Amino acid sequence: MDDKYYTAGEIARIAGVSLRTIRYYDAKGLLPPVSHSDTGYRLYDKGSLSLLQRILMLKYLGFSLEEIQKLVAAQEADDLDQEAILDHQKKLLLERRQQLEQLISTIELAQKSPREDKWQILVRCLNLLTSEEKVLEQYQNPDNLQHRINIHTYSTSSQGWMDWVYERLALEPGETVLELGCGTGLLWMERPHLLPEGLQLTLTDRSREMLEQTRQNLAPYESELASRGIRITYRVLDANALELPAASYDRIIANHMLYHVERRESCLAAIARALKPEGTFYCSTVGDSHMQELHQLVTAFDPRIDMPFLSLTGGFHLENAKPQLLRHFTRVERQDQDNDLIVDDPQVIYDYIRSYPGNASLILEQRGRELLSLIRDKLEQEGAMFIRKSTGIFICRH
Ligand SMILES: C[S@@+](CC[C@H](N)C(=O)[O-])C[C@H]1O[C@@H](n2cnc3c(N)ncnc32)[C@H](O)[C@@H]1O
Questions:
Q1: CA–CA separation, 30 vs 109, rounded Å?
Q2: Domain residue spans of the chain
């Protein structure tokens, strides 16, 4: 970057904003001058132009000035380079485009629908406008997570997902282990007898309710574990703002959760920092084609049902996670589980669909019986429903 300075007027002209706007952002502490001329004029440089572009982009995307201030400060603290900032902007714009496209098709649907259906479409609009909050709400509810887990008991593989993951951890006695987004603690619940002696396990989740459920699930094993020197600590922890001691963990685990972390880049950096030099980071996720048959069934039944889950996991799928991980780890190995679902219980399929974040449960208040009988008919004809799974884990080392 050259060291040319611009006055406030020049920078305003280049960006196509008023001088008042530049002064306003300066007064708010968002765009401070980088220097002053001998005669006291505020001076800016190319970095200020790039900062102004970020501010205006976030404003365009609908963030408040306070939110912009926080986001910019967080990006500065993470020391993000221009590439990472552009990636972030592109992601936000793509999400906004998708949301706009969904809103436009919802409005078009409302225009074509009879009067009595319009209220439902209005509900769909509301859900689209609040879909991110809905995902958070959904995770604060362990029942919904349980419905989504139940379907996986119909696996074609005799080895369940958690057993498969646990086997890959290959834990050693006395190790320090951290799990992010532990949910209801399923990874540990069914196999406390397998935990090696002296294990120091820290279980964390953003949701206090989830963590409480984990604590309750593991309570029956407490004294047995303590007798073998195994200590479990519970902490509410948001992976977006990790403050972890450096080089402290032998293993860090993020099982089906990294796609929910908005500040994934800084989260991965914090994980890499917290891992011991010989430590291992395990993160699992789903692939693009995961549960496709189920999503097709829902779309064919009622295209108004949102599937924000699909778009919200897409940022960290089996197909696009590796380059993200390679920015923080030298060795990244992907292992896929060979496993699908054959489900012969209509209620299990129905409960799974109903637990989708978004408007599924609202629409199914009206059309639930219809969907359930459609699933019943399908299973009667076909015996069971085949649902392809695509799940795997990345094993990462320094
Ligand atoms: C799909 S569940 C997986 C739970 C568990 N790991 C499992 O495999 O059963 C995702 C979990 O991540 C948690 N989560 C989502 N965003 C998070 C964040 N930013 N920080 C920590 N936990 C988060 C949710 O509360 C939820 O428990």
A1: 42
A2: 6-77, 84-129, 137-397
Q: What is the residue with the minimal CA distance to atom 12 of ligand 1?
A: 181
Class of the CATH-defined domain 137-397: alpha beta
Residue to mutate, 188, 206, 237, 259, ligand 1, most ligand atoms under 8 Å from C-beta:
206
Whether the Cβ atoms of residue 285 and residue 316 lie closer than 8 Å to each other:
yes
Task: Name the residue of 242, 257, 259, 317 to mutate for ligand 1: max ligand atoms within 8 A of Cβ.
Answer: 257
140 CA closest ligand 1 atom index: 25
- Name the residue at shortest CA distance from atom 26 of ligand 1: 183
* 83-120 tens-digit pLDDT: 878 887 887 788 778 778 777 877 777 777 777 677 76
Check pLDDT > 60 for residue 139. Answer: no
Q: Which of 40-54, 66-80, 324-338, 373-387 has the lowest mean pLDDT?
A: 66-80
As a three-state string, the secondary structure of 77-108 is HCCCCHHHHHHHHHHHHHHHHHHHHHHHHHHH
Which helix (H) or strand (E) element contains residue 261?
A: none
Q: Which residues of 310-327 are buried (b: 16+ CB within 10 A; e: fewer)?
A: eebbbbbbbeebeebbee
- pLDDT tops 50 at residue 140: no
Residues with CB under 6 A from ligand 1: 139, 145, 180-183, 186, 205-207, 210, 237-240, 255-257, 260-261
Which CATH architecture is the domain 6-77 placed in? Orthogonal Bundle (1.10)
Q: Residue 238 CA: which ligand 1 atom is closest?
A: 20
**Residue 254 backbone zone (phi > 0: left; psi -120 to 50: alpha; other: beta):** beta
CA of 259 to the centre of ligand 1 (A): 9
Beta-strand relationship, 385-387 and 275-286: unpaired
More confidently predicted of 150 and 377? 377
Closest CA to 202 of 219, 223, 179: 179
Ligand 1 atom nearest residue 139's Cα: 25
Assigned token pair, 85: 């900032």
